[in-house]
Amino acid sequence: MRPFSARATQPTRAERVRSILVVAHSMTVVSDGVQTEVRRLDGTGAMGHIHLHAPTEGGHAPAGERVPARLEFTDIAPTPVRDRLRARVTVTGLLAAPYSTDAESSTCMEFGQAVLEDAEGRTFITLEELEQTETDPVAACEAGMLTHLVDDHSELVPLLLRLVRPHPERGMVRAVPLAMDRYGVTLRLEYPRSHRDVRLPFPKPVTDIDQAGPQIHALLAAARRVSHRNGLPA
Q1: Region 214-220: what's the mean pLDDT?
Q2: Of these four, 58, 61, 146, 174, which has the most CB atoms within 10 Å of its CB?
Q3: Domain of 166?
């Protein structure tokens, strides 16, 4: 696995793809022109439902028993932000046939390529990159933590805005937490006709989910210090 870097401030593209696959609750399988929706992955995500292997490991299934397939995933923000689609991931390859939609079963797939599409563009990810990276420890709890922040502690979001540099432009309608990962929190700043995303990096990357709470509190403490220096209410 790729070690953490204290200098990193955001996940690599491979980290994002792996985390999306691991926590996915559903996926779309397209094969032979047939589109199948697979839901209720029972918390195992695609990485527990589909075993990805290199073409050189094709002994998992005879050539005649594999069919071209495309697996599609969407990463949706758990909070009510404008434009909730955060990313799309597409994995292509040869899928063992017949394919089972049973969420408790595992199916082998000869990996072709993975593509991540988001606001930064399109990136191709190799199987080696996926295997050498780690799943974000925050990924499985991100939705619950963000919705808890919005529903039960919404007064803290304006406090976090004190850390945004440059300061939000005038005319901002609202700010909503968009994402959280091991490196920090992303806020979406919404304006009447546009929006922009800003990252607030944690003092240290999270290596275990138990560290997420203290890192969030560290951000809030930094925001309060900014408030006191500027004579603003905390």
Answers
A1: 96
A2: 146
A3: 139-229
Q: Is the pTM of this model over 0.90?
A: no
pLDDT in tens, 35-82: 988 876 655 667 767 888 888 654 555 555 788 999 999 999 999 999
The set of residues, in sequence order, having a beta carbon less than 8 Å from that of 70 and lying 6+ positions away, is 29, 30, 31, 90, 91, 92
Gyration radius of the chain over CA positions: 20
User: Among 88, 115, 132, where does a domain finish?
Assistant: 132
- Alpha carbon of 203 to those of 14, 81, 103, 218: distances in Å? 23, 26, 39, 7
Conformational region of residue 231, where left means phi above 0, alpha means psi within -120 to 50, and beta covers everything else: left
The total number of structural domains in the chain stands at 2
